[in-house]
Amino acid sequence: MLSTINSNQLFDLKNSFHDLYLDDPTVNPYNETNLDSHFFDTTSLIQKFKKSQTPLYMSLNVQSLPSKHEKLCTFIHELLKNDVLIDVIAVQEIWQLQNLNTIQIPGFNFYHKARAFSRGGGVGFYVNENLSVKIIENLSSFHEKIFESLTIEISHKNKKTLCSNIYRSPSPNANLIGNFCEKLETLLSSLNQFNSQSLVFLDSNINLLSLTTNPRVGDYFDSIINNGFLQLILKATRIQNNSNSL
């Protein structure tokens, strides 16, 4: 099953790059990288990262952290007991959190921003308790349903890494999508001012598999590339019946 979906070209963003950079393939930002993207199940994920010394960062849309917390804990515990070391877990759509004590994960500290005026949304980070964390408020713009973000600075062994977590509610409204892209452009540009590695975890509800057919998706992708970032997840993140999206 894994080999079948990993080889399915309909699920792979890289297949759009040929058309996108047809006029000048040399400007393809992925030409000089060994970046690859794969689907995993729990077993294959453990096999790949067991006892790895490379920092592992995970991202997940939980659609209500209180209701998914037990399932998330079970998954993380399975990885940890098999010697998979996790530094950061970014979660989107945490929803409202009435009692923070009920959503903790042993071995991790939790940081979040949630909506005050409407249901759903919100973003958070579980960070390995051995890492030092500082919230960067001026890079944590939060506009409900439009651009919900949280940026933290992680320090470990004299190395600093900026992590930004972003969520946008699904909406076909062109003005709202434009507003989101403007705020994303501002954040990515600001991250470039820091002399640190920057990682951005986001659920934008903008389908990158429509890159060559939807101009707004093209603008969104251009903003990422033009600010010196690369889209690291290149496979469909949602597959249902005959539809798929990234």
The averaged pLDDT comes out at: 94
- H/I helix tally: 6
Give the biggest sheet: 5 strands, mixed
User: Beta-strand percentage?
Assistant: 15-25%
Structural class by secondary-structure content: alpha+beta
| Alpha carbon gap, first and last residue | 19 Å
User: Would you give the CATH topology?
Assistant: Deoxyribonuclease I, Chain A
What would CATH call the class?
Alpha Beta
How many domains is the backbone divided into?
Answer: 1
- Uncertain spans, ≥5 residues at pLDDT below 50? none
Helix content: 25-40%
Reported CATH architecture: 4-Layer Sandwich
Q: What does the overall shape look like?
A: globular
The arrangement of helices and strands along the chain is HHHEHEEEEEEEHEHEE
Radius of gyration: 18 Å
Number of strands: 11
